[in-house]
Design brief:
337 residues; alpha/beta; Aminopeptidase; six-stranded mixed beta sheet; two-stranded parallel ribbon; disordered N terminus; transferase; glutaminyl-peptide cyclotransferase activity; QC/QCL
Length: 337
């Protein structure tokens, strides 16, 4: 994941308030301003299969690091397209060329799976499927360590593959675009420009397939045990209404231990560009552990290290992410989110 450029966007704004901010974010956000969907007969929310999601994460890791331009990257792309098509999605491969910060030419692909493509009213669900080409966490003492990206990349994709499988079997009355973004993790750490990150998200945001989704949810690092999903700053800045709805829904479903009512700093992740370029209000569900002052990173210890393997993945966390996303889709389709 990317975001070494932790954006302290507008320090004076509440969105970058630290986690000890006196006003919990999902209570003090502004009231809803958009027109809700007309309530319809609600369809049952499918049960998210955590074992299935885990198997999808494991399969991705079995290809090896999914670094852009590598054989593992090409093999993973083929497998992802095949799986999404098997679930009944209309799949488009959005190929693009991008120059990385170090001058490397990247031949990358965003994979766009559309469910109910005939419907105008649509939701975006996204994750990145590439991996970091090298280990550069402050906690990594081996610069040659292999980053397998079980959590940072594969977990979000694994969750969305299981969501896609459920959408193929249980059709909500709303369109869903599942977008697997590429070249997210090839950015420059330590002083690099924020635009060096999330290259696939930037390309997608400038080339959104119409009709444009009304809102989006990004999943990033949603597989580790004891995950902590705070209200990330740029999510609160650009999509406060959606944050409030999703976090309250998660609490009502019994997942309050994961979706904590605390603020975290804004970060540069795929959702930042989807918000600022495409204009699609998008939130980031991402594991950002509580900071007691002793951490050298905002992220989990295995982030950008050789420890990001299947050992860190917990099926309960995958379910906490996926079940809430499924409930969001079906509740929004029924006009009851």
């Amino acid at each position: 994941m990317k975001s070494l450029l932790y954006v302290l966007l507008a320090i004076s704004l509440a969105l970058t308030a630290c986690q000890s901010d006196a006003n919990p974010p999902i209570q003090d956000m502004p009231a809803a301003v958009s027109e809700p969907r007309e309530p319809t007969e609600a369809k049952p929310i499918p049960k998210f299969d955590r074992d299935s999601a885990y198997a999808y994460v494991e399969k991705q890791v079995s290809f090896g690091p999914r670094v852009v331009n590598s054989d593992a990257h090409a093999q993973t792309r083929e497998w992802l397209v095949q799986k999404l098509e098997s679930f009944g999605a209309e799949v488009r491969e959005q190929d693009f060329e991008a120059e990385a910060y170090d001058g490397t030419n990247l031949s990358a692909t965003n994979i766009i799976a559309r469910f109910a493509p005939e419907l105008e009213d649509r939701i975006l669900l996204a994750a990145h499927w590439d991996t970091r080409p090298f280990a550069d966490s402050p906690l990594e003492d081996d610069p040659n360590a292999v980053v397998n990206g079980a959590d940072d990349g594969a977990s979000g994709v694994g969750v969305l593959l299981e969501v896609a499988r459920q959408l193929g079997q249980n059709k909500p009355d709303i369109g869903v675009d599942i977008v697997l973004l590429d070249a997210e993790d090839y950015g420059k750490s330590n002083g690099g420009k924020r635009e060096s990150w999330a290259l696939g998200a930037q390309y997608y945001s400038r080339n959104v397939i119409e009709p444009k989704p009304r809102f989006g949810i990004l999943l990033d690092m949603v597989g580790a045990r004891d995950a902590n999903f705070p209200v990330e700053g740029n999510s609160e800045r650009y999509a406060p209404e959606l944050v409030r709805k999703v976090w309250r829904l998660a609490h009502s479903m019994g997942y309050g231990d994961y979706y904590v009512n605390e603020r975290a700093n804004g970060i540069i992740d795929d959702h930042f560009f989807i918000n600022t370029i495409a204009g699609i209000p998008t939130i980031d569900i991402i594991n950002m552990p509580r900071n007691d002052g002793s951490r050298s990173s905002q992220f989990v210890d295995h982030w950008h290290t050789g420890d990001d393997n299947m050992d860190v993945i917990d099926k309960r966390t995958l379910r906490a992410a996926g079940q809430v996303v499924l409930a969001t889709v079906f509740r929004e389709a029924a006009g009851t989110l």
